[in-house]
User: Fold V-type proton ATPase subunit C from Mastacembelus armatus.
Amino acid sequence: MTEFWLISAPGEKTCQQTWDKMMAATTRTNNLSTNHKFNIPDLKVGTLDVLVGLSDELAKLDSFVESVVKKVAQYMADVLEDSRDKVQENLLANGVDLVTYITRFQWDMAKYPIKQSLKNISEIISKQLTQIDNDLKTRASAYNNLKGNLQNLERKNAGSLLTRSLADIVKKEDFVLDSEYLITLLVVVPKTAYADWQKTYETLAEMVVPRSSNLLFQDNDSGLFSVTLFRKAIDDFKHKARENKFIVRDFQYNEEEMKADKEEMTRLCTDKKKQFVTIKLLFKWCPAHYNLCLCVMCSSRYGLPVNFQAMLLQPNKKTMKKLREVLNDLYKHLDSSAAAIIDSAMDIPGLNLSQQEYYPYVYYKIDCNLLEFKV
Assistant:
């Protein structure tokens, strides 16, 4: 499972006792979950009034962080396109997968100094998220333009012989070049008309060079033939060829233009790969907001001074209901009104939680599956 429950309960005589009690109830006798301590530094919590006021702002920040992280993950999937099965292995935070990152989470003291107030730290996170969100919009727009240009070039290189680019098909030696009188044309001939072409091309106009036609390329439907003639016969040749359902391509061999087309394709492919590298760097920032929100929740619920143990539980899928019952029994003494609040759909002032999320203990659900599709 990729679902985690981040919970917290007030310390017993020591926080270690709180941890031991929870471990005994959930793992040592019934194997309901895999548990990890969740380390929260000694943050500058301020007064209870400040915490209650800040909790609503943090709830909004929490939703914003989740939406941005999911958008970044989805964008990475879009960039990977046909390699979407590799998305999960590239969704890394600080160089490790999300499960490892969450279970071994460490507060970044450099980015979020704990001597600053919780409000200041939340503002730092909000500004960073806004920057990432704006950066993502810019890069997504650039990527869509890049993708569109590349698709147009790919269509030119993969269409029928009537429309596709010929840069990767023809060679310099296929043409008579730099001649004042002669020119080489390229003609698309249906496969069913190859024999007719060989019989008639020399007589479609005057001044066609005998035995000058060669098959240069063919696809499932047609072949591309070259033919050399005098320049003054071009219009007559094109007219007669069209009457016989032979289509003369409007093409002039230009080495510099063909080289530029190939370089443009290479550049677009390179830029596309750079988009993937960039998105990995964007995703490196992983939500550090959980422990900040948790600290406010615990402090406003349990009061000051701060004294609680944060714990990360990974429920076993088949025993989630039983785990919830065990936790409720273990912590129901903390808030006897919790069950009644859940049943009556009562709002919790300052906590901004739905009734389904309210328990005697502080609870956050963390889902590491950030993508809407199944890879």
Notes: The beta strands are 3-10, 33-37, 92-93, 96-97, 182-190, 214-218, 222-230, 247-249, 308-315, 362-367. The two ends are 15 Å apart (CA to CA). Confidence is low (pLDDT under 50) at residues 285-291, 341-356. The longest helix spans residues 118-158.
